[in-house]
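Course exercise 7: structure representation. Students receive a sequence record and must write out the corresponding structure in token form. The form below is the worked example handed out in class, using Cytidylate kinase (214 residues). Read each field label carefully; the graders check that inputs and outputs are placed in the correct fields and that the protein name is recorded exactly as given.

STUDENT ID: A-19
EXERCISE PROTEIN: Cytidylate kinase
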Amino acid sequence: MIIAVDGPAASGKGTLAEGLARHYRLPHLDTGLLYRAVGLAVADREDGPDFEPAAIAAAQGLDPAQLADRDALTSAEAGVLASKVAVIGPVRAALFDFQRSFALQPGGAVLDGRDIGTKICPDADVKLFIQADSKARMERRARQLEKRGLVVDRYALYHQIEARDARDMLNPNGGFYKAADAHLLDTTLLDIEAALRAAIEIVDRTMALKAGDR
Ligand code: C5P
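STUDENT ANSWER:
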């Protein structure tokens, strides 16, 4: 079973994907980490003339060991860098095979990102598109950062999330929209447990319908 979970920044898709992976005992890949790792690898060239070729080379040479430093990868700065390398077509192409192979491992997988249901796994068994309003997403991300002992400027964070959403939505090489066959789950008013219960219900119902069709 392949489960695709897409949605904008801080929508709760990562936590939900992790919960689904635990529930169904499937491996999980947070595909945002790949773009974040590429972004961090070229941080010192940000907005410079060789940013693009350097990002392409970093994506082509990405080593899974670069996904280990979660604190650096999940920083707000890494998120901004990720969204800048994510608009580069050859970067996306270079990361495609890694994501596709992960999805196709025996037994299945849960992947979360922006284009899983549209580009990486258009054939996924279940697709979820997670949304939540921008203020709720900002507040969640702020609490995550505060838990790590960081001081958060909520106003700046809100604008950073909005700017990242805008860049993502306009990404010409993206595919950052809800697939026609994806189930929409709005988590604005749901806590983690309620959102996970709703997601499990959607997965179970979809799989039962598929089994009935066979
Ligand atoms: O999901 P996360 O916030 O970690 O993603 C960071 C950035 O990586 C996104 O803003 C987006 O630009 C990019 N991304 C992408 N395709 C994916 C996952 C993330 O372009 N499948």
